[in-house]
């Protein structure tokens, strides 16, 4: 390839092997590309090409590609790109991915690549490196072959990380790109990941009683392999009992299992319930182990949810106390980032203790906002989240001279937290160990953790629509701009309910609109959600004859 010319028989040859389905429209969204796996062959090939171009644009730094559809059903799959620091793909490149994926023919595809190379002045003589992995979906191996064809078509260097979790792939990408620098993040292997986290966990648990057994629902997904591996590194410091690790039953992935099931259904995974005793805590991963939800059985044998909001509150309080204990209050600012989906009670609880910022839904928005704090904590209610420590904070922790042994201990704990937490992305395994550390230090049971504040009853309803893009928002997605006049109607309904709040936003992954509602009474929250859902359905031109009965 020339310095700025995309051509060559190899690219044309491989592209012809992976034709675009006619009239199929692809869009790179919050979760990358995600849909029925049968439609993704050409997308994976083109993502391989795009990842190589991204690497060349970044002077040969390694770019990551993860083949997964996370919490979606097993018949779906998807793919997303990971930038060199282990973060989400730069927003401008999302549009490039969408454009390139929708080129109808090989000639159109090569033309769109040529335009991108010229626009961004990409030097094609630069090397390209792509690190990729997949989850356990049966469609994964064939899709990875298509991805590898894209990498080969660009004469790029590919490294297959095999079957692993999304957070481990993010970790590996950052490690590769920071090797032999002052920002060295860790050894670029699964063993390096496990060693780093388990060592930090053991340091933080020193002198603490061994926690009670923890039941972990693995969603019949790749998180089971990571859980089994970390258990070997942790030894007796934490007893983990995995459930839902069936890889032989077709369709088992995320079915009646996993963090999304628990959060949306507000119930125990059926396989877990018989094993739970009153007061015992349990946790669920999602299909690629980047979400974590806790829950427990109370003394009335009722389901109690400990979601991302509860995790944020638990972790934020612990870190604030460590910063104070280290004598660094006023020198390190700790903040929390939430989305509109955060329960109103959690926002009130946190706002009384530290700064809270609300941003639009999507990891990229949360991650970016968290970077503005010295220690930024973000957790979506769905259980996806992490903690970011700024470079200045890391330097301060390394250089600060404690005045007392107690201050020295707090500084050591904060430094260990920077090793325990996967700062590249939400990581169910890392977050689980973080929660267990805080519970041990606080001597909290699940009930005591839960009692920090009481969630307002809430309901999330999905409304299928023909065109999700006709629903646009402002104010961090808390208010509708279009369709015109719909927000006023929502406001009028909300006023009728004590503690009422509701918002409407388009899904990032499917032609649907999501309606969230909360109120002081559970019956009111459900009624409010269904009334607003009914408004949305009517506004979207839904047929009265097929309107769901619950939409009021």
Task: Describe the protein's architecture and organization.
By secondary structure, the chain is of the alpha/beta class. 40% of the residues lie in helices and 18% in strands. It has 18 helices and 19 strands. It has a five-stranded mixed sheet, sandwiched between helices. The mean pLDDT is 95.
Proportion in helices: 25-40%
Shape: globular
Query: Would you report the number of β strands?
Result: 19
Structural class: alpha/beta
Task: Tell me, rounded to a whole number, the average pLDDT.
Answer: 95
Tell me the strand order in the biggest sheet. Answer: 1-3-2-4-5
Biggest pleated sheet: 5 strands, mixed
The Rg value, from CA coordinates, equals: 24 Å
Strand content: 15-25%
Uncertain stretches:
none
**How many angstroms separate the termini?**
61 Å
* Number of helical elements: 18
Element layout with pairings:
Elements: H1 9-17, E1 33-36, H2 41-57, E2 62-67, E3 76-82, H3 91-101, H4 106-120, E4 129-134, H5 140-153, E5 157-163, H6 166-178, H7 190-205, E6 214-217, H8 223-234, E7 240-243, H9 259-265, E8 281-285, E9 292-297, E10 303-306, H10 308-325, E11 334-338, H11 344-351, E12 356-358, H12 363-370, E13 375-379, E14 385-389, H13 391-399, H14 405-420, H15 428-442, H16 446-450, E15 458-464, E16 472-474, E17 479-482, H17 486-494, E18 501-506, E19 512-518, H18 522-539
Parallel strand pairs: 2-4, 4-5, 6-7, 6-8, 11-12, 11-13
Antiparallel strand pairs: 1-3, 2-3, 8-9, 9-10, 13-14, 15-19, 16-17, 18-19
């Amino acid at each position: 390839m020339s310095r700025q010319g995309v051509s060559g028989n190899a690219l044309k040859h491989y592209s012809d092997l992976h034709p675009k389905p006619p009239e199929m429209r692809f869009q790179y969204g919050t979760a990358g590309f995600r849909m029925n796996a049968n439609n993704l062959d050409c997308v994976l090939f083109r993502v391989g090409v795009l990842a190589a171009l991204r690497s060349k644009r970044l002077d040969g730094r390694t770019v990551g590609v993860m083949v997964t559809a996370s919490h979606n059903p097993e018949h779906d799959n998807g793919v997303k790109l990971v930038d060199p620091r282990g973060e989400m793909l730069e927003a401008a490149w999302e549009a490039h991915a969408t454009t390139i994926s929708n080129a109808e023919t090989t000639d159109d595809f090569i033309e769109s690549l040529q335009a991108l190379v010229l626009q961004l002045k990409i030097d094609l003589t630069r090397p390209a490196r792509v690190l990729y992995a997949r989850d356990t979906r049966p469609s994964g191996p064939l899709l990875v072959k298509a991805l590898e064809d894209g990498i080969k078509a660009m004469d790029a260097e590919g490294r297959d990380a095999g079957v692993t979790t999304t957070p481990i792939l993010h970790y590996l990408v950052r490690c590769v790109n920071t090797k032999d620098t002052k920002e060295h993040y860790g050894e670029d292997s699964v063993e390096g990941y496990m060693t780093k986290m388990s060592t930090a966990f053991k340091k933080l648990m020193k002198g603490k009683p061994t926690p009670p057994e923890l039941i972990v629902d693995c969603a019949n997904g790749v998180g089971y392999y990571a859980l089994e591996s970390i258990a070997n590194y942790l030894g007796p410091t934490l007893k983990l009992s995995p459930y839902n690790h069936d890889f032989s039953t077709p369709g088992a992935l995320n079915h009646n299992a996993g963090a999304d099931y628990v959060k949306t259904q507000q119930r125990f995974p059926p396989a877990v319930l018989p094993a739970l005793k009153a007061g015992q805590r349990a946790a669920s991963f999602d299909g690629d182990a980047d979400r974590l939800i806790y829950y427990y059985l109370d003394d009335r044998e009722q389901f109690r949810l400990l979601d991302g909001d509860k995790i944020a509150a638990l972790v934020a309080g612990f870190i604030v106390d460590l910063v104070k204990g280290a004598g660094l209050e006023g020198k390190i600012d700790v903040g929390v980032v939430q989305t509109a989906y955060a329960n109103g009670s959690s926002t009130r609880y946190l706002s009384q203790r530290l700064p809270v910022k609300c941003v639009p839904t999507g990891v990229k928005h949360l991650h970016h906002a968290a970077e503005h704090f010295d220690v930024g904590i973000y957790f979506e209610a769905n259980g996806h989240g992490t903690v970011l420590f700024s470079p200045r904070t890391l330097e301060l922790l390394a250089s600060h001279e404690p005045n007392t042994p107690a201050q020295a201990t707090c500084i050591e704990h904060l430094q260990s937290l920077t090793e325990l937490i996967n700062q590249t992305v939400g990581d169910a395994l890392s977050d689980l160990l973080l929660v267990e550390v805080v519970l041990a230090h606080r001597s909290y049971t699940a009930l005591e953790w839960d009692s920090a504040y009481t969630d307002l009853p809430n309901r999330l309803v999905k409304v299928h629509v023909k065109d999700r893009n006709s629903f646009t928002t402002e104010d961090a997605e808390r208010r509708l701009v279009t369709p015109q006049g719909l927000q006023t109607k929502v406001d009028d309904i909300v006023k009728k309910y004590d503690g009422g709040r509701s918002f409407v936003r388009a899904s990032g992954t499917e032609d649907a609109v999501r309606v969230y509602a909360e109120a002081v009474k559970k019956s009111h929250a459900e009624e409010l959600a269904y009334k607003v859902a009914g408004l949305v359905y009517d506004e979207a031109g839904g047929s009265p004859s097929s309107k769901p009965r619950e939409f009021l």
